[in-house]
Amino acid sequence: MNLSLIDPFVLAQDYPDTLTEKLRSGHATCLRFNRKGDYLASGRVDGTVVIFDIETNGVARKLRGHTRQIQSLSWSRDGRYLLSSSQDWKCILWDLKDGSRVRTVRFEAPVYIAELHPYNHLLFVASLFEDQPVLVDISSPKPIKRILPSAPFRPPPPPDEDVDPAVMAKQAAQDAKHSTCVTIFTALGNHIIAGTSKGWLNIIETQTCTTIYSMRLCNGVVILLRLSSNGRDLLSNSSDRVIRTIVMPDLSRLGVDLEPSSIKLQVEHKFQDVVNRLSWNHVTFSSTSEFVTASTFMNPDIYVWERSHGSLVKILEGPREELGVVEWHPSRPMVVACGLESGCIYTWSIVSPQKWSALAPDFGEVEENVVYMEREDEFDVHPAEEVHQRRLDQEDEVPDVLTIEPSLHSTYYAAPVSDPAGHPDGDDLGSFRMPVLLDISDSESEEDIVAVGPGTMRRRSPGAGRDANGEGEKEKAGAGRGGGQRGRRRNA
Amino acid sequence: MNMSPAKRRRVNPSPSPSVDDRSIQSPVESSSDELAAGSDRDEAERRRASWSLQKVYPPQRPYPRSRSYSGSESPDELAVDAEVYWRTSRRGRGRPARPARSPTPTEVSEDYQDGDEEGQDEEQEEEPDEEQETEAIGRGDEPDREETEALGRGDDLDDDHDDHRERDRDHRDQTMDGGADDTPMADDYEDRSPTPVPPPPVPPKPDKLEYRAKFLLRGHLRGVSAVKFSPDATMIASGGADAAVKVWDTRSGRLINTFEGHLAGISTISWSPDGATIASGSDDKTIRLWNVLTGKAHPIPFVGHHNYVYQIAFSPKGNILVSGSYDEAVFLWDVRSASVMRSLPAHSDPVGGIDVVWDGTLIASCATDGLIRIWDTATGQCLRTLVHEDNPPVTSVRFSPNGKFVLAWSLDDCVRLWNYVEGRCIKTYQGHVNRKFSLSGGFGIYGLPGAPAEAFVVSGSEDGAVLCWDVVSKKVLQRIEGHTGVVLGVDTCALEGKRLMVSCGIDGTVRVYEEADPETEPTEPETQPHTVQEESQEKEAPEPQDTEMGEGE
Fold this sequence. Notes:
The complex is a heterodimer of chains A (492) and B (553). Chain A is mainly β and 492 residues long. Chain A starts with 7 loop residues before the first helix and ends with a helix. The relative contact order of chain A is 0.13. Chain A folds into 2 domains: 2-158 and 165-349, YVTN repeat-like/Quinoprotein amine dehydrogenase (Methylamine Dehydrogenase, Chain H), CATH 2.130.10.10; 440-491, no CATH class. In chain A, the strands form 8 sheets. Chain A has a 4-stranded antiparallel β-sheet. A 4-stranded antiparallel β-sheet of chain A has the order 2-3-4-5. The longest helix of chain A is centred in the middle third of the chain and has 13 residues, at 165-177. Chain A contains 7 helices and 30 strands. Chain B is an alpha+beta fold and 553 residues long. Helices cover 18% and strands 32% of the residues of chain B. In chain B, strands 27-28-29-1-30 form a 5-stranded mixed β-sheet, with no helix packed on it. In chain B, strands 6, 7, 8, 9 and 10 form a 5-stranded antiparallel β-sheet that branches. A 4-stranded antiparallel β-sheet of chain B has the order 2-3-4-5, with no helix packed on it. In chain B, a hairpin with a 3-residue loop joins strand 3 (235-240) and strand 4. At the A-B interface, strand 5, helix 3, helix 5 and helix 7 of A face helix 3, strand 14, strand 17, strand 18 and strand 22 of B.
């Protein structure tokens, strides 16, 4: 509702520029916004998942179940379920309605990344550490795991041609060296995109778990794959220090007028720091996938490139530590990143100045001096009753106070505020509401922040049994500020 | 408008020194405005106009601060005008009207030049003047008055509000008569009232509402200042000057729960969107949460306001609570941690009303400084300020159901509907009395099934009625009598296809009304509402004085 009142110039700016917030709950290592963008899930080193309310910057829920560092988080479409994967070889699907565990899936290895199917929260893919990736169906209490192939797709040899067994053997040996590092679903969930340690991309059909297409992307390991919110662009981070954006074909047309053999994945942009040869910790698309953002290795900066020309538009600065996971808000120009050293979550967004004319209705903001033209009747005097009656008579509008206009904002401004991806079921975003827990903050503050004196606090160590005394001064300062954001502590 | 001769004479700024006994009038003392106004004749007209505007809404501030009514006068000038005005009107009672005086902005200083005797005289009169003006402001703002100190909005609910009204009316009459002692004092008040007669209904679309009394809920020991349906409409929460929140069952009118814990009267309550929690704001400066399901109080009160909490509202997600206070601030609370998340430097006068738009992105606040401000929830910035030309104190504000308009109650007997995007007042609803209390109300829906829903505006009135206006035509659809005192709060809802309304008032009762089925015969004999009395009331009945906490005085 506020869009009609906000300065359109502020709305037109679509990437953040200022460090605005610092959230803290333990040592966060991974972050993920829900689709609506009102909650931010963060995984901690100690295995706790903390969900922040972006509107209040407070902790909305804590989920305890993992014992090791959280590796990845994935929200269901309606925001009710959250899948967390951890180095303790487990994936847990949480129901945020009551904070309970829906399913716990154990693997034979630590989990790299697990991602929920975009429409079915009882199906997910997981890439494992030095193991085969799996597609896991958890619709029944006993999970069904199906192993996904890592080897690149070889077009079947023509039937009339003999195949040399030696070549076959060599290929098989090569294929065996591939291991999948990252798996994600496509926008509709019919296919899985997998990146391998040899720099290949595989497209795997979800239904059959067979590879239908492969391409060689780079020489290094594919570290991370991200899909834009509309599913048309793919972003990859690889160990050759190049970030690539790839235009995705419309895989829903497979079998209609698109053959798997005619799929072409085309690299659109390559982003790299040619001078410093920086490598990138984590990459993400902006909400509209207009921008690409990356946190840098051994560097406290976040780079923002725009995609139409492929140019660097902004380097976000602020914290003095190296940043790990970086995430872009699904609808607003807002970037969050977590510090590797302190585990703080930093937030960059746009700070719009107060319009002073908004404070007084008879004030206007002008660029330069204006000669005031007096109205003809400006100083005419009318009897009060007459004025009052005329005012009442002029009130002949027919206001509609009931009808809520659907998607008012999208018609007002071509701002980045719109239904992500424009999916037909975009309206299901508001269907789930996380209950507001009133006792969350108590357990929070007592556990993490210990007041040692008036106005000073220190953080209790995230790991069990370890003592915080050995931690540096910087750590304490960070903890103190983090506590300050939770006002209760500040008042205390 | 016709003026009494005495007034006209007094207003006339005759420059002749023979009439004006003060011979020294330095040119410095005439304001630049006056010079700009052209001839003296124009000046007189203009001034009269501004004064008569004031009569529509008498300034009710304890201090001579006033905003420009006519748009052409400087605020300073008007402020002095108002003071002169009050003083002369007071004086008019005791002694004959003064000879014509020039109403220059330097009136005050002139008075002191005038002679020691008169100057002292006026000095003495200054005090009662201020006191009375303060009383005229709704909700008993003055903390030093004993009987109202702990009550806030529902102040002097149990004591003689008639007395107040009498004084208030008296006060207004003086305003009308302009200090001339030759006009009758009070008897001609009725026909001078700007209250229009409700126009006769017109045939198209439902032209009247048929809400009938259903329950009369007794249980509060003192006046009830706020009443709200739960989000699912199955319960009614009411809070009042007895510092208790009571929860009633909508279907049966049975008392479900009573929450006690506040140390002073409650001015406002709000249901959390999930219906599990009630928040109450009190004159003990705290906001408390009550769990409806368990019947327990939330252990941590929301402490932070420096003065009475006047109105609170939950955000639609229930994670933020917005509160407006007598301390002129608007606080945004993180409900989970019970801490202030943001403080809006909202107003320069006590904040009377607060509301949050349906999607939670905007907050509306209003204050007795006459301003309605629209805030961005996410950034805390003021996006728009609405002010009516006459600048009456605004005591309550509500967003329309679709959030495109703002409804504001002001102490000039008006409820106004604002288009806040364009900053225009588009409708003025009149017919009720609202001069000193912070009334509130809201929107309701009417119309036959099948037909498009029409909206009405509902408000209480200080004469004990509940009024419903059609939003578009501004006509009074129904006037429900019943309360014996000021009706402070009204809320509407729909439960199981039936449209209900609930009102509360200074008489300590909560009344539930139900819309009569349009098909059924209107000759239903059951006009007497089913009275529901709290059983435990006679048994324990704690002393109301116990709830009065010393406010630091």
